[in-house]
Amino acid sequence: MKITRKEFLTIAGLAGAGVGATKLVRAIEPAEPMTGSKGKQFGLVIDFQKCRNDKGCEQCLTACRLAHNIPQIPEPAHAVKWIWKEPVDKVFPFQQNDYTRQMFSGHVLPILCNHCADPACTRVCPTQATWKRPEDGIVMMDWHRCIGCRYCMAACPYGSRSFNWVDPRPYIHPETADFPSRTKGVVEKCNFCEERLAVGKQPACVEACAEKALVFGDLNDPNSPVRELLRTRFAIQRQPELGTGPSIFYLV
Ligand code: SF4
Ligand code: SF4
Questions:
Q1: Number of H helices, E strands in the chain
Q2: What is the 81 CA–ligand 2 centroid distance (Å)?
Q3: C-alpha distance from residue 54 to each of 16, 50, 235, 245 (Å)
Q4: What residue ranges line ligand 1, CB within 6 angstroms?
Q5: How far, CA to CA in Å, does 84 sit from each of 20, 188, 215?
Q6: pTM to 2 decimals?
Q7: Interval 196-219: pLDDT, tens
Q8: CA distance 199 to 43
Q9: Which atom of ligand 1 approaches the CA of 159 most closely?
Q10: Strands 42-47 and 248-251
Q11: Element spanning 110, H or E
């Protein structure tokens, strides 16, 4: 079901919501840097209208799983997730009302680590196993340094990190030699395909989406495709009021 931006804003009560709307809807001016950083801040824009996840499409999820040796563990409590899908109600619990809940019933969206501008997860890590890369804003993980304390999981307000409760390797099908597998006892999450970016490729999820619903780029570059979309379309982030500065935007 398609809705116009005006319909969404009217129904969601955002059009005249004043301060609340400022937090929820970001129209970014060309010269306004997304972060205090002078370097890049990679981000992802997901077009709510183009994404066919609700029709069962899982191209982005599959591409990520194959590129990163993500195990398929049947026990839900042990699942490892880098990009996955959730109902709209759950992704945006505070941006819903009775009308939008009806409208978006059954819709699901891909979600992943927000590669926050000011991530809570990195501050609590006692071993610097996770950090924000200054040159491009990617929130990285070094599995060799991770001691499995899970402080980062407790700190992340988005549930974007997974813990390897069991040895993941028996659950990787097929396994690629191009990316390391992890071991029991470490935390992992989306890395924005830093290994692909390093050789000039787009993230696997972006490349795999036939609908071109995912657009990746530098949020600090006023001429980037992501900035062009954010300049011309309305976008919402997951819980921006927490001050984490999510770098994933959903176009409505
Ligand atoms: S979404 Fe969570 S794991 Fe990802 S950078 Fe933000 S706080 Fe860290
Ligand atoms: S689980 Fe690993 S990455 Fe997370 S805070 Fe502990 S040592 Fe750091």
A1: 10, 10
A2: 16
A3: 29, 10, 19, 27
A4: 113-116, 119-121, 139, 156, 158, 160-161, 189, 244
A5: 28, 14, 17
A6: 0.86
A7: 999 999 999 999 999 999 999 999
A8: 18
A9: 2
A10: parallel
A11: strand 108-112
